[in-house]
Specification:
509 residues; five-stranded parallel beta sheet; 31 strands; 57% strand
Length: 509
């Protein structure tokens, strides 16, 4: 949008000067003196200025601290020491508390600036006409000064934008410890699982900055003068004639034009992650029975250290478009100066004639200034949880060598009449049982039960991922033009024929 600060348009400026006679005389007078004539047409446009200034600041500060709860114990135990086996300890898992953290930060800024300044002066057909007429014995015409001036002021357009975007993120996570995950059977019967799992840590951070800046500055200083005309026709008819000086000028000038775009963009992302996977102190699955019928397998005693999974993603995107245009333009079309001093006398003297047509354009300057700073700082530290032990053990012995019969027969319908007070593997029974009733079993069984099938210990894994991206696109266009154009300039001086003085007449004798 163009704003005319001052639009001064003069369609026709017509000044006609006919200077009257002063002193005594006239046609039959003795002395006639004409006063000077000053004529001026002036058209001036003031200065034009347009300015946009913008400052944007955006920031996100995020902090997370998480600690998973500890699992002090996860024992599942059976303490029976029956003859034919006690129940299974099916599960004794201990799970340290997991920590899951997620952060997301985003800054978006869009700035559009348009500054337009125009100072325009238009002068069309300004006319100055001076016709001093002097008829006397002694004639003196005054000076004639004529001018047509058209001037536009300075035009200045400016856009300034500053954008500051930042994201700061911090995460600290500690997975909970699993102190014990034993699954024990103190009689017979399987301890099927006794897993201890340290708490996992999962952290995720996403930061994004996006800025779009569009700037356009346009400054125009324009002066247009069309057909300025100056006419001076001093006429002197006398015995002694003197015409004054004639000064004529047509001036057209445009002011300076300046367009400027300035942009500064700073984008930064700072990310920090620290994760410690929870420890699994023990994950034993044990059977310690000394029952008659053998002890069961410890099928699983896994210990898993807590895993650490960290992910960071940072992105900066900036688009800057700048367009600056400055034009200083002066156009003068068909300026005309006409001076026609007419002197008819015995003694005739004409004054000096000075004529000028001036057309000049001012300075034009267009500039774009852009500074973009982008940075990504990422930091990750992950420690996988330790698995101190993951043993799966079976320590129970089955039947001892043959013992003398106790007072009470142990086998009554498949079950001893008196059971021991303590579970297998934790003390000898008060009344030692006899040989079990199962005649298919050998008289002496081995001291240890079946194999411990699994006792894995696995340290926690660490998985870290970082992604950082900076994207900047800058387009700048600057155009400056200073133009002075003059067409059909004409200076015309007409000095008509001056008659020679006649010889003196004969006097009668």
């Amino acid at each position: 949008m163009k704003r005319y600060v001052i639009a001064a348009i003069t369609c026709i400026a017509l000044t006609v000067g006919v200077t009257p006679a002063t002193a005594s005389g006239g046609l039959g007078g003795v002395v006639q003196t004409l006063t000077g004539t000053s004529q001026q047409n002036t058209n001036t446009a003031g200065d034009a200025s347009a300015s946009n200034a913008n400052g944007t600041s955006q920031s996100n500060d995020q902090s997370q601290t998480g600690s998973g709860g500890d699992a002090t114990t996860g024992d599942a135990s059976t303490g029976g020491a029956g003859c034919c086996g006690s129940g299974d300890a099916t599960s004794g898992d201990a799970d340290g508390g997991d920590v899951t953290q997620s952060q997301e930060a985003s800054n978006t800024s869009s700035t559009t600036q348009d500054a337009s300044a125009e100072s325009k002066a238009v002068q069309v057909l300004p006319v100055n006409v001076a016709v001093p007429i002097c008829v006397a014995k002694v004639c003196d015409t005054g000076s004639v000064e004529q001018s047509n001036t058209n001037t536009s002021g300075d035009a200045s357009a400016k856009n300034v934008n500053v954008t500051d975007q930042s994201n700061e993120q911090s995460q600290t996570g500690t997975g909970g410890d699993a102190r014990s995950g034993d699954a024990t059977a103190a009689g017979s019967g399987d301890a099927t699982t006794g897993d201890a799992a340290g708490g996992d840590v999962t952290q995720s951070q996403t930061a994004s900055n996006e800025n779009i800046t569009s700037q356009k500055a346009e400054a125009v200083s324009e002066a247009v003068q069309i057909a300025p005309v100056n006419v001076a026709v001093p006429v002197c008819v006398a015995v002694h004639c003197k015409t004054g000086d004639v000064e004529q000028s047509n001036g057209n000038r445009s002011g300076d034009a300046s367009a400027f775009n300035g942009n500064g963009t700073w984008q930064s992302n700072e990310q920090a992650q620290s994760g410690l996977g929870g420890n699994a102190s023990t994950g034993d699955a044990t059977t310690g029975g000394h029952g008659c019928c053998g002890s069961g397998d410890a099928t699983s005693g896994n210990a898993y250290g807590g895993d650490v999974d960290q992910s960071q993603s940072a992105s900066n995107s900036n688009t800057t478009s700048q367009d600056a245009s400055a034009t200083s333009k002066a156009v003068q079309i068909a300026p005309v100066n006409v001076a026609a001093p007419v002197c008819v006398a015995w003694h005739c003297k004409t004054g000096d004639v000075e004529q000028s047509n001036t057309n000049s354009s001012g300075d034009a300057w267009a500039g774009n200034l852009n500074h973009t700073g982008q940075s990504n700082e990422q930091w990750q530290k992950g420690v996988g949880g330790d698995a101190a032990t993951g043993d799966a053990t079976s320590a129970g012995g089955c039947c001892k060598p043959h013992q003398p019969k106790p007072r009470h027969q142990p086998c009554d319908k498949g079950k001893p009449k008196h059971e021991p007070r303590h579970g297998c593997g934790k003390g000898k029974p008060k009344h030692r049982p006899e040989q079990p009733c199962d005649k298919d079993k050998p008289e002496h069984e081995p001291e240890h039960g079946a194999d411990a099938e699994s006792g894995k210990a696995k340290g926690g894994d660490v998985d870290q991922s970082q992604s950082a991206s900076n994207d900047n696109r800058t387009g700048q266009t600057a155009h400056a033009a200073s133009t002075a154009k003059q067409e059909g300039a004409l200076n015309l001086l007409l000095e008509p024929w001056k008659p020679k003085p006649a010889p003196p007449a004969c006097r009668p004798c």
